[in-house]
Design brief:
The complex is a heterodimer of chains A (269) and B (261).
Chain A: E1 8-14, H1 24-28, H2 32-49, E2 54-59, H3 61-64, H4 76-84, E3 89-93, H5 101-113, E4 119-122, H6 124-127, H7 137-146, E5 150-153, H8 162-171, E6 177-180, H9 191-197, E7 201-204, H10 211-221, E8 226-227, H11 237-245, H12 251-265
Parallel strand pairs in A: 1-2, 2-3, 3-4, 4-5, 5-6, 6-7, 7-8
Helix pairs in contact in A: 5-7, 8-9, 9-10
Chain B: E1 14-22, E2 33-34, H1 36-46, E3 50-55, H2 62-75, E4 80-85, H3 93-103, E5 108-111, H4 113-116, H5 125-136, E6 140-143, H6 152-161, E7 167-170, H7 180-186, E8 190-193, H8 203-206, E9 211-212, H9 222-234, H10 240-254
Parallel strand pairs in B: 1-3, 3-4, 4-5, 5-6, 6-7, 7-8, 8-9
Antiparallel strand pairs in B: 1-2
Helix pairs in contact in B: 3-5, 6-7, 9-10
Classes of the chains: A alpha/beta (269), B alpha/beta (261).
Chain lengths: 269, 261
């Protein structure tokens, strides 16, 4: 595949505010605006350096903070990043599932209508809730209402096993649900059975490295159900692309994985 | 494949972790067998000079796979380095160790705790295997990152108990284990191998010859695993010296191979 490729990175993060592995005290010493500007620079440089058309981005802090400091808990930075990156950002909204149902719904509506978010990001492991818990139903109700795909972290936590993806996917068959990391190296045996059970399940490739699994997925379910992602942006993009190029699947299937699948799901022209 | 070097300055590349024969992931590809020719072709395409190779497959296939690796190493002595896969549950495991290491010139031992259902620090035969590894001066590569069989703390504990043995933590914890760096800092005879888990820390954190490149081909893409090291080098996370060490020179020193530096 030497020709110009159409690539969407379906899994990216901006880091303004709290982070998973770092102390809040340390972070609070630096002005968030300063960090935001640094992040804008990082994204701009990355998009200039690599041949990626779009990135689906969420912020980490709204997943980490149980009580949000602002109305949207840091999701605002994704909307602002989107403005600065000339339309290359697909905003993924991280809801606070611990808020009352009507507030969750109100905020998602605002996120879509006012800020232009195109999808939802959930991180059951970091935020500490089971993916199929009733407190998450309001999120999926809104996803169904506005046609928003939902990307969620999978693996390495009992909160987001592939079976929980199946359970919520069967409850909301109209919502495309993307299994981030496709079980990683921890629950990869569950991926094929999960995909067989729910047709609205999709896979995102970052963190997973098992070639035969991905080849089996493409053969059995089609490349349309696989989205390329990095969990970046970062400088391992060439290695992550090499993994897709190296798959024993057709060039057309690689094109779907690298960009067309995400374009279809996120309705990118 | 793109690396931050010219053709004349291409680094020596030794892939510390490859397999032929059956895949470990038989759930996905029951009948697929990877031949030595496929391995050599992959190495040629990726610019890999040499590779450590052991047999994949489920426990009942181990002996057959070891014989297959022996044939492969005899056919490509300049390219392949044999690692014998041992299952401590086999009565004749020490005989196999003697046969492949002492008699056939294999350079290392491969253990796969979760695949073969034994636990580090809980399997008495392992002590006998490690004593022989010390006697023959060969490294022991062990799959890591899978609870409860083989996680970082267990590696550090056994490395402390057997200071003469070089232990290689295949996969650096598979990205499942957040205690790898701290455990590796406790001991000097614990090497991190990069396949799947990636580069967790540059050698300057742990010390020279403490990190080695491996791909775990054919489970993964050799090209992609190698490109990750190139990417770290190109982005400045690794110095040139560190990258060249990781890519092959460190493993060559661990195996006492003579290569052009």
């Amino acid at each position: 595949m030497n020709k110009k490729r159409f690539i969407i990175d379906a899994h990216q993060h901006i880091r303004v505010g709290s982070y998973i592995y770092s102390s809040k005290l340390e972070k609070s010493k630096i002005d968030p605006e300063q960090i935001f500007e640094r992040e804008v620079r990082r994204f701009k440089d990355w998009f200039e350096k690599y041949e990626v058309a779009y990135g689906a981005v969420s912020n980490i802090s709204p997943m980490v903070d149980r009580v949000w400091q602002s109305r949207h808990g840091g999701n605002e930075y994704v909307a602002r990043l989107s403005e600065r990156l000339n339309g290359r950002i697909i905003g993924l909204y991280v809801p606070n599932v611990f808020e009352p149902a009507d507030i969750i719904k109100e905020k998602i509506e605002e996120a879509v209508k006012t800020y232009g978010f195109k999808g939802i990001k959930l991180h059951p492991w970091v935020s500490a809730f089971p993916l199929n818990h009733p407190i998450v139903y309001p999120v999926f109700d809104m996803a169904a209402k506005y046609g928003l795909p939902v990307l969620s972290h999978s693996a390495r936590s009992e909160f987001c096993t592939p079976l929980l993806f199946v359970d919520i996917a069967l409850r909301y068959p109209e919502v495309p649900i993307i299994m981030g990391h496709m079980g990683k190296q921890h629950l990869h045996y569950d991926v094929l059975p999960a995909m067989r059970l729910a047709e609205n399940l999709y896979l995102e490739t970052s963190g997973s490295k098992i070639q035969v699994l991905l080849e089996r997925v493409v053969k059995e379910f089609g490349a349309e159900r696989v989205l390329f992602g990095t969990d970046g942006p970062h400088d391992l993009l060439p290695a992550y692309l090499a993994r897709i190029e190296d798959l024993n699947v057709s060039d057309e299937e690689k094109e779907w994985i690298l960009g067309k699948s995400a374009a279809k799901i996120f309705k990118i022209q | 494949m793109k690396g931050p070097f010219s053709e004349e300055e291409k680094p020596f590349i030794l892939d510390a972790h490859t397999h032929i024969g059956a895949s470990y992931l038989t759930c996905y590809f029951v009948n697929k067998r990877w031949s030595v020719e496929e391995l050599i072709r992959e190495m040629d395409q990726c610019g890999v000079d040499m590779a450590c190779v052991s047999g994949g497959g489920l426990p009942h296939e181990i002996k057959k796979m070891n014989r297959m690796v022996l044939d492969a190493v005899k056919r490509y002595p300049d390219r392949l380095i044999g690692f014998v896969r041992l299952n401590p549950k086999f009565d004749d495991v020490l005989d196999d160790l003697d046969y492949y290491i002492r008699d056939q010139g294999f350079k290392g031992i491969k253990l796969h705790p979760n695949q073969d259902c034994f636990c580090l620090l809980r399997e008495p035969v392992l002590e006998l295997i490690y004593e022989k590894a010390a006697k023959y001066r060969v490294p022991v590569m062990i799959h890591s990152g899978t609870e409860p069989w083989s996680v970082a703390g267990q590696f550090a504990d056994q490395a402390e108990m057997f200071p003469e043995v070089t232990f290689i933590m295949a996969h650096s914890g598979l990205r499942n284990d957040k205690h790898v760096i701290e455990s590796a800092k406790r001991v000097e005879n614990l090497i991190l191998e990069t396949s799947i888990g990636g580069l967790l820390a540059p050698p300057r954190i742990l010390g020279k010859d403490r990190v080695v490149f491996g791909s775990d081909w054919p489970t993964t893409s050799m090209r992609s695993e190698l490109q990750e090291v190139f990417d770290h080098w190109a982005s400045g996370m690794l110095t040139e010296e560190e990258a060249r060490d990781i890519l092959g020179l460190s493993m060559a020193r661990i195996l006492s191979l003579r290569v052009k530096e």
